Every structure is written in structure tokens, then in C-alpha cells.
Amino acid sequence: MRLATLRDGTRDGQLVVVSRDLTRTVAASDVAGTLQQALDQWATAAPALHALADALENGDAEGAVPFDQAAAMAPLPRAWQWLDGSAYDCHGELMAKVFGLDPTPIDRPLMYQGVSDHFYGPRDEVPFASEEDGIDFEGEFGVIVDEVPMGTSAEAAAAHIRLVVQINDWSLRKIAPIEMRTGFGWVQAKPPCGIAPVAVTPDALGAAWRDGRVDLNLLVDWNGARFGAANGYPMSASFPELVAHAARTRTLCAGTVIGSGTVSNANFREIGSSCIAERRGIELMDEGQPRTAFMAFGDIVRMEVRQPDGAPVFGILEQKVVRAR
Fold it and tell me: Residue 105 pLDDT more than 90?
């Protein structure tokens, strides 16, 4: 099943069901007005949404219309909670080199809590105060859960993962090391994220949902040129493990979004990167200094995921960097 949220003039938009090929959609108003409402009552909403999805595929859904990705908001335009992991070890090692930090001793998943009151839509322009802050994109996968009780194990957490999404976790690289050194977490360095237009249930990924991970390539283009095509599978901690880590001392409310961290592979020199800072880290290792600049106003980053047969998965996340007014 594939879900999206269309603009209707409200903060949370209108929940819709989307066809497998992402070409058609139908409003889910009779089931739930918004995705958050559906997540709050998932046990009853999910069967009705699945039935609507089947009707859409069979051509029996009354009121079906073409799906316009540009008219979509983030599937969950705002959430009660956004927790981002860092589950790709080679990315963490490169970032330590970029920022001149000692490697972080890892005896548990890395995770921070970020801003969740707004997620940018798939075609939103994203405003920043200054190019001097080091504007960077970060391609990630993420999951959205229903309510997860405190102390839930990783084995049990898998059943609470209701949707999978693709995320651009924007970062300001010049501010990040300053805030990291305080030991008190990120605020200025982490603006709101962007999310691709379609959220999918894990079963919709088929064989690509493997061991609680997305076994697909994340295609990243910067100003029309391919920048990276890293595969999502090599996570040191699976999504169920990340969910269990987050729920160790708190109950996670329905609608909590949990990210994988920047998708990164050990063969980064061959397949590229999902963020500029990683590319700069590679240049630092290979050439003694970074040479790739961060983003400038007017730059466009495009992210997409496709199945091996070319079928679209989350739709296209394409955002332009602009100067904040």
C-alpha cells in the first residue's frame, strides 16, 4: 500500500491512497482525514486503506484522479517526534575525519532528536539564512511507527513499523561541529527535513524490505549530475533495532518518524555519496583537502528510489535551495 498527503489548505493536508505505479490516487476521507489520524487508529484504518488500494488498482475506486507529485506535501507534514539514527558506519568514520573528531565509541545505536513540527514537501523550496553555514543534503531512509510501548524488543518492534519513507535530512555543516562540541545536541545545524511524496508499507517493497532494511539504491542528483547511488542495506543497526533503542526508556507515540542516517556504502569511491560532507571527507583522505563546495542558493537536489525493474517507490524528492526572506 502507498499513501500520500495532498495540499488542501490545512497544516496536515488530505490523506490519499496512491496506485502502485504512482500515477493515480483517491482520497481516503471515509477512512481518515490525515495520515496521523490513520496511524492513531491503524488497527481499524489499515484494512480499510488496503481495500481502497485494491479498488484503485482494479479501477473500481470512485473519485480516482491522476496523482500529481508536485501537489503533494510530505506524507506526514508534521509529527510528534523525529528521531534520526546514524546506522552507516563508514559515513560516521568519514564525518569524524571531516570535522577533526575522534571516532565515537559505538556500543549502541547513535541517535538524536530533531525538529518535527514541519517536514518540507517533495517540491518545496527550502530557505536558508546564509550560504556560509555550509548547506548540505543528506539522503536517508526512514520508518513511521504506530505506538511502541516502552521497553519493546527489536523482535517485537518490527511489527510496529507501519510505513517506510525516503528523507532529505538537511544539515548546516559549519554550525554542526560547534554544537557537537557543546555536548548538548543540535538546534541550529539541523533545519526541518524533506520527505518524498509517497510512504509505503513494508510489504509493498517486496524483497527489497530485507532484515528490517531497504535493499535498494538511493539515487542522488545535484544540479542535474549524478552524485551518489548508495544502497540502503548495509546498516549496522536495522530499523527494528533503531525503534527498540528509541523505545528503551519512553513509549513512542504513533507517528514517530525514525531515520537511518545518511545512506553510505564502503565502496563510496565507486558509487558516490548521499551528502556533500561525505564527498569532502573522501577528498580529504585522497587529496589532503576537500575541494567540493557546499550548496549555493539556486542549487537543486533530486532524490529517487526505484525497484530493480524500474518501478518507482517513493516518488521524486526534488528541492531547491533559496535565500530566506
Answer: no
CA angle 66, 127, 225 (to 5 degrees): 65
- pLDDT confidence of 98, banded at 50, 70, 90? low
Region class of 205: left (phi > 0), else alpha (psi between -120 and 50), else beta: alpha
Q: Provide the 8-state DSSP code for 203.
A: G
Q: Encode pLDDT of 144-182 as tens digits.
A: 999 999 999 999 999 999 999 999 999 999 998 888 788
Distances (CA, A) of 325 to 105, 127, 128, 130, 297: 41, 8, 9, 11, 12
Answer for the pair 257, 116: CB distance below 8 angstroms, yes or no. Answer: yes
Q: Could you give the CA distance from residue 227 to residue 139 in angstroms, rounded to a whole number?
A: 11
* 248-258 as b/e: b if 16+ CB within 10 A: eeeebbbbbbb
Side chain identity at residue 194, one-letter code: G
**List of residues 6+ apart from 47 with CB closer than 8 A:** none
pLDDT recorded at residue 90: 77
pLDDT, residue 180, reads 79
Strand partners, 243: none
Cell of 2: 502507498
Strands (E), 82-172: 82-85, 111-114, 125-128, 135-136, 139-145, 161-168, 171-172
Regarding beta strands 194-195 and 139-145, do their DSSP bridges make them parallel or antiparallel, or are they unpaired? unpaired
Note if the pTM is more than 0.90: yes
Q: Residues near 49 by Cβ (< 8 Å), separated by ≥ 6?
A: 1, 3, 17, 28, 31, 32, 38
| Strand, helix or coil for residue 78 | coil
User: With 0-12 CB in 10 A as exposed, 13-18 as middle and 19+ as buried, what is 303?
Assistant: buried
Mean pLDDT of 69-82: 97
How far, in Å, CA of 136 to CA of 131, rounded? 10
Q: State the CB neighbour count (10 A cutoff) for residue 160.
A: 22
